[in-house]
Write the structure tokens for this entry.
Amino acid sequence: MVVLAERRPFLFALGLSALVLALTADERVFGLVTDGQIMTRTAYAMAALSEIGIALGHPVDILRPAGDAVTRYGMGPSFVRAPVAAVSGAFENAFGTGASQTLFVLEQVFLVLLAALAAGLLARACGTPAKGVRRAVLATALASPLWAYVSSDWSEPLQAACVGGAFACAALAGGPGARRPGALAAGAGALAGFALLTKSVFIVLLPIVLAVAVLEAPREKRGARALAFLAGAAPFAAIWLAFETVRFGRPFASYAGEPFSHDPLDGLWRLTVGPNKGLFLYFPLALLGTWGLARLAKTRRVLGLALAGFTAFLLLTTAAWWSWDGASGWGPRLLMPVVPLLAAAAAVAAPARPAAAFTVLFGLGVAVNALGVLQPDGPTTWYYMVLPQKPLTEAETRNYASYAVLRAEGEAPRLGQWFDVANHAELSPIKVTAWLLARRFAGGDVLGALKTPPWRTDRPGFEMAVPPERAIPPSALVFLTSPFRWPHLGMSLTRSAGQTDTVLAFVDCLYDQTLRAQDMGRGDRAVAFAEELYRRVPSRQTAATLAEAYRMAGRRETLADFVASLRPDQKASPDFGMVLALAARDAGNEARARQVLGQVLSVSPRREYVRLSGSPMSDWPPTLRKIQVPAEQLGRKEP
């Protein structure tokens, strides 16, 4: 083992990292966060239809004239996820519903390993020996928050892999005795370009990485290196520009209305040493990495300044953004792209510090991030929804994105809980996560325990405003209240038929495309997706969705046969009742339509449904989606 570690440091460190990641990956929560859902749904649209449209109803999507929406996020994560989405249906046919969770999480494992590989390559380019390479790889994969992102559907592992890989290729291209420096420069350009495709803010990465690839080369080779870099970056930059223009009309428009309104000095200390999202708390080796960047700036000036400059840029812009904490995600989510850079710099600095410094900081990082691995952040974030919403003045609302501000008629605007939690040390995710994990280990009445949170509730703003069972969606609550079960890659392959503590990401994609077809008025497409959805997951929700698809497509006889074939419990949902009311309206039977509507209102007096009771049937919207969606879309505009 020692010989392997010395002679094959990458193989040893990546192999060990892969083993740990595989033995701790929790597939059950992939697909629980809205932003990640949007990326995965877009990936499925690309794989199944060669389109990028998704259904209406997301608070951060972009509406289109055709009646559907598109993601506002970078297309890179969806491109990478599309191959998995393409094979998920066949995989679940073979191994059962929910089995494709393994594939989605396996891809996240691979991306974290790529980020770790990039850190090791960057450390090697800086002249560190085999021990330093191992340190950089293991620090990235196991002693940083990236470990916890293996189980999530966030794009941070991809971002870290692209950023770290771009710098590693550029540094290797300019290093002494570089092999195939032109190919490495082109690789640096390609990775920097794909990083841009992943997130538009990474446009700054292009000139910074270009500077490393060009300025570290011999003067007579700089022109060729620049051309190689641009050749690698140009295709991805062109794809980025095309998708920006098609979706938003112009570049950099997807985050319109989201200001840099946070006090940057406040954001800086919170993002570095703060108890909620401090980078040094979640990635202690960043302390050593900061020292390493300073050393690199002296020994390899261009590379050191480039790494330090990009890190400072990301830190400063994040500190000033209105959602500096990323709202959700383990640790300082928006700083994850610099983890491979700081890990490599820590490996550079380690020999110049006391021998135990790296080991101690590494151990602290493993301990802290193991909490976020064993108790994933998605359900934990939902737990904060028991808190009251923070009242805002109209002037204060301008400091936040519109979707973060909640408004009810006759009431003052309020800030959603997720967007205020990071400002209070009492609500530290590390503290709350450890407490939740302990409750699940203890077993017993976990739901009862959740009603006594680990913070003082006797102060305004910290009381439990809503019981957990009302504040937290079932998909998250079931995970918070289920007994602890050790996570591992492949756990979805043995999922029992009645198991409910698993998100079904692929099924969610089918459901999204069913709703999208309804939004666009494409009945036949809605039927095709809804039938597939119901075949895989026959439930009250999917039964209502398929019934509405049959109604929209004008298949009255098929609808009647389908309704007759269902058990009473599958027809008991209010949505199913509304489909029957709309079907009666279609047939001109107003008495029957209003009778069914009355039955629906007796069990579900939703505002959208109540409004219909006082309207002539001619004013009823044509579809169930058009009844339900408008309230969610108020104030939003097409690009």
Observations:
- The beta strands are 62-63, 69-70, 390-391, 405-406, 414-415.
